[in-house]
């Protein structure tokens, strides 16, 4: 499992959001973002392999971008937020960083999970 993971829950149906494209980036050198990994949430709504196995994240600023437009389009639903971006800070590379996303077509929330 990656040191940075996410879990997407579709609160409009009360189930995990499978098939959400996710990209993990690291901010290096000012406003330059470097892609560290990408994937798609599995049947349980999880993306557990955003970083290659054994890679320890460097302290700094990271960004998760969720392609919510593609997810809701596949469900034939209108969406107000076609993309959700969550920027967060990694201070201790020895910790696991889990960033869940609660999602609906017209809103979202996030928090630091465990």
Task: Characterise the protein shown here.
The protein is mainly beta and 114 residues long. It has one domain: Immunoglobulin-like (Sandwich), CATH 2.60.40. The chain has one helix at 68-74, and strands at 4-10, 15-16, 21-27, 33-40, 46-47, 60-66, 84-90, 97-104, 107-110. The strands form 2 sheets. Strands 1, 2, 5, 8 and 9 form a 5-stranded mixed beta sheet that branches. A 4-stranded antiparallel beta sheet has the order 4-3-6-7. The longest helix has 7 residues, at 68-74. The protein is globular, with a radius of gyration of 14 Å. The protein starts with a strand and ends with a strand.
Index terms:
4-stranded antiparallel beta sheet, Immunoglobulin-like, mainly beta, single chain, 114 residues, 5-stranded mixed beta sheet, globular, 1 helix
Global morphology: globular
Annotated CATH architecture: Sandwich
Count of folded domains: 1
Distance N terminus to C terminus?
13 Å
Number of helices: 1
* Rg, Å, rounded: 14 Å
Order of helix and strand elements from N to C terminus: EEEEEEHEEE
Low-confidence stretches: none
Report on the biggest sheet. Answer: 5 strands, mixed
Q: Name the helicity range.
A: under 10%
Structural class estimated from helices and strands: mainly beta
Number of strands: 9
């Amino acid at each position: 499992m990656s040191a940075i993971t996410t879990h997407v829950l579709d609160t409009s149906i009360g189930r995990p959001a499978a098939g959400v494209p996710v990209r993990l980036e690291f901010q290096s050198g000012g406003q330059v973002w470097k892609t560290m990994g990408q994937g798609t949430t599995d049947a349980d709504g999880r993306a557990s392999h955003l970083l290659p196995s054994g890679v320890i994240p460097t302290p700094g600023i990271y960004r998760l971008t969720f392609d919510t437009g593609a997810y809701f389009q596949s469900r034939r639903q209108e969406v107000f937020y076609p993309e959700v971006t969550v920027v967060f800070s990694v201070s201790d590379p020895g910790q696991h960083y889990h960033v869940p996303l609660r999602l609906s077509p017209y809103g979202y929330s996030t928090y630091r999970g465990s």
